[in-house]
Amino acid sequence: MLITKSIIKAAIPCAAKNDIRNYLNGALFEWTNSDKRLRVISTNGLVLSALSVEVPYCEDVDFSIIVPLEVLIYVSKIKNPAEELKPNGDGWQFADRLFKPLDGKFPDYRRVIPDFKGRVSSPANFDPYLLVLARKALTAYYDKEAVFIFHLEQYGYDGAAMHNGQNDAMVVIMPARLTEHDVPALQYRGFV
Question: Which one of 10, 17, 95, 97 has the minimum C-beta count within 10 Å?
């Protein structure tokens, strides 16, 4: 299956780096024959990128593998616009790189993606670094310039979703859990 460079580059910013939970040090590549879509999910536990693209694939076998981060970085630096991911013996091959998928069970990303139907928005606090990671992932996916504006939707204490209004990519950002002691009391005094 040919995978575009934009998907690979979009998965990298949200993947964990040297996490003790080894299965987070890469991206989940999940393909189901029923809907012919490739889903690429990466997370560091605080921010999660969820990418989905229709990909023609001749095999009738569903698969779900965790591609190591170092393989993603290697493939992202190759000059071709797309690279092939395929089984190879008892491992996998991405472009010219042979690898073994990471062991472990990737978190159930479907439980993290917010459902905004019928909810009322509420204020939230976010780590600015996580917002930068989210923007970087979406900018890479859509191959847009840095001036492109993405939507950020936050409802309640669930994660916020940054997206561009389409249903093919979003980044979920977990809000900072602040107490009243973490936030200085601000008093509105009006303009003087």
Answer: 17
